[in-house]
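Students often ask why we bother encoding 3D structure as a string. The short answer is that it lets us treat folding as translation between two languages. Here is a chain of 253 residues written in the first language.
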Amino acid sequence: MEGSSGSDITLYQFGLSHYNEKARWVFDYKGVPYTSKPVLPGFHFGTIKRLSGQTATPVVTLGDQVVAGSADIVERIDGLSADRPLFPEDVEARREVDAWISWLDEEIGPPVRLALFQALLPKPLFAALFFTQDVSPWVRTLYRAIFPMLGIVLRRAAGASEAAAAEARVVVDRGLTRVGDAAAKTGYLVGDSFTAADLTAGALFFPLFYPETMPSKVPDRSTPIFEAWLSTWRDHPGRAYIERLYADHRLPR
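And here it is in the second language, the structure alphabet:
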């Protein structure tokens, strides 16, 4: 954005959230510096509401401007630098990219989150650790102490239940198959180069795998509850597409 620089760009985010990963990815891919401001699930509502008038993360402040929502953030940050554009100039190709982003954001992101919450939140100590990878030890300790009650609130807010999660896993499985099949010919969803459609797919499916090449810190993968979640998707044929996006295009900060 004209008039903004890395020194006055702040990203308010959850550390291991897929929509937030989408925002981090565009900053890192475009080489746009920013300040990370981690917020904790359940305690973020007041801060985010004051900033943006709504309660969902990610939110970015660019000087005195506020951008809420991962799709708008990706488009705005892409516009800050002409290098390695994420949106094609061709009108039809741009339409395809936008269609993929809308479908992924609306049809895939929510069931991924619901299924993940149902898998992790019943184990409050691990869930608290999961959500506090990028905060100070004393904040982590406090969050763990209150998480048993907070986890109930978060599950209700997400509509998590075993029946809902089972339906969500079916949707996610089919969605991962769809993107894997679509990218089989060229390696990408639109044309033969990396676009915002691929970035969105990589980010929104990343909680199925937490790829080894991702920059964010994750809990011990051998922890039984985390291992059980990861094993659900380990042999899915669409995994190769997501992991290749991380290996080839997810640059560390």
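Translate back mentally: Residues 91-249 form a domain with the Glutathione S-transferase Yfyf (Class Pi); Chain A, domain 2 fold (CATH 1.20.1050.10). Keep this in mind for the problem set.
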